[in-house]
Amino acid sequence: MIRLWLSEEGIHEFDYLYKPALANQILRESRHFVGIKGLMMIARSFLLWSRNPKVKEQLRWYFEKLKNKISIQRKGK
To answer: 12, 15, 27, 68 - which has most CB atoms within 10 Å?
Structure first.
């Protein structure tokens, strides 16, 4: 919504911030999902802004969380 308003007003000073901001927001939201959806969100973030240093950190977090979830499921059997 803000991006549209800025564009309509002819304000382009912040265009370079859009992709990094959106990529970081998607990464934050991906922490709520462990599974395919979370991994897809991380991939989407990477595709939006491939130079994002937080993607590698998020992938480590994601796979650690997934490993713990699998470990707990195996103990329950």
So the answer is: 27
